[in-house]
Recover the amino acids of this structure.
């Protein structure tokens, strides 16, 4: 394997997005929702650079096995908080086909939050099967399978501090 995006670069991505959240949501006490498990590392990094009042929440929407999406998305763990009238910011690790985030958007919109904002550490727009455009993107990448900093390969490698690729997948 080799490093594709270094830890330092990930921290810079988190700082930039946190800065935008600080400016936009000051005084609004938004819910900063981590989409488990993949976004746990980026959500935690983002939170370090947030200097406004926020509440932290966790959901799990899962369907991904191995290196190919199964196309079926389920909410395995729901929010603990009523989001009616709240500003909700979903933090995802990577948007690939867009199925997970478009399912989450449809589900959460029914609960009438004041606003829904989507943050993703990485975006693979070339892989979309449904329309979905995140509001804040750490970095756009090509159609590559990446892992580390929360992202897994069959539950392995989430703990790596950098985002990595398998060498044969890079070119
Ligand atoms: P989507 O529903 O196809 O957009 O997929 C979103 C989920 O697939 C992400 O939250 C990841 O868990 C997983 N995923 C997509 N691409 C990758 C990748 O390159 N590495 C690891 N997981 C990925």
């Amino acid at each position: 394997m080799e490093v594709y995006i270094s830890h330092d670069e990930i921290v810079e991505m988190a700082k930039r997005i946190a800065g935008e959240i600080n400016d936009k949501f000051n005084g609004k006490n938004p819910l900063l929702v981590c989409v488990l498990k993949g976004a746990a590392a980026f959500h935690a990094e983002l939170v370090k650079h947030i200097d406004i009042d926020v509440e932290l929440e966790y959901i799990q929407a899962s369907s991904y096995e191995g290196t190919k999406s199964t196309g079926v998305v389920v909410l395995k763990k729901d929010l603990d908080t009523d989001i009616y009238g709240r500003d909700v910011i979903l933090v995802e690790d990577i948007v690939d086909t867009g199925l997970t985030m478009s399912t989450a958007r449809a589900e959460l919109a029914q609960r009438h939050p004041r606003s829904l904002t989507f943050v993703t550490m990485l975006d693979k727009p070339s892989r979309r099967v449904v329309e979905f455009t995140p509001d804040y993107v750490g970095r756009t990448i090509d159609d590559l399978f990446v892992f580390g900093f929360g992202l897994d390969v069959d539950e392995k490698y989430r703990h790596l501090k950098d985002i990595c690729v398998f060498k044969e997948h890079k070119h």
